[in-house]
Amino acid sequence: xxxxxxxxxxxxxxxxxxxxxxxxxxxxxxxxxxxxxxxxxxxxxxxxxxxxxxxxxxxxxxxxxxxxxxxxxxxxxxxxxxxxxxxxxxxxxxxxxxxxxxxxxxxxxxxxxxxxxxxxxxxxxxxxxxxxxxxxxxxxxxxxxxxxxxxxxxxxxxxxxxxxxxxxxxxxxxxxx
Length: 177
Fold this sequence. Notes:
The chain is 55% helix and 7% strand. With 177 residues, it is mostly helical.
């Protein structure tokens, strides 16, 4: 069984050789995952790892975490925030630029999350990586539909739509008097 030191050296040499750490992933698989799940990550620079980016997992997270409440993809979702269709995204996209854009809008996003969902959405780095992958994968987005939205999120969206319609009807009634 390889030691962690051997795995790290393998990863470092793989990175230096330009493999982006794939050698590290293979070594981890062969060792039965002795590196605690790092096999899905790639060495980017000494001490830095880049998580794998899975658009299929990102699709489930986009719907399940509630991003779909405010953002739409493929015509599915809310209209309170920018559409996130891959066809309109700059390519290639640096995922850190995407995260930086989210950071610049964080105050408004957190406010809307609390107002519309009832709490701030919590994401791990891996979850964010997967969501970013989905947001930039046009072919995976084409499979996204209302059926992908979990019942609890769908109920929340339906309630919000009804609440907005009721609020508008009340406002119209107030102006009629």
